[in-house]
Design a protein that fits this description.
- By secondary structure, the chain is mainly α.
- The chain is built from three helices and no strands.
Length: 56
């Protein structure tokens, strides 16, 4: 769980920006997107093999 405490005399926008950075580093959005649809283990392995091919 990502927590950010607002410091004294700190604008809300700055605290929100810090929260967003921590949220991205934690990889929460990536996990949510990955778990949106179920993939069979065989399809996961197949996609993992194809991923390096797409990069080259």
């Amino acid at each position: 769980m990502v927590k950010v405490t607002i410091r004294s005399n700190e604008p809300f926008e700055r605290a929100l920006k810090r929260f967003k950075k921590k949220w991205e580093k934690a990889g929460i959005l990536r996990d949510v997107r990955a778990k949106q649809h179920y993939l069979k283990p065989s399809l996961e392995r197949k996609m993992a093999k194809q991923k390096p091919r797409k990069r080259s």
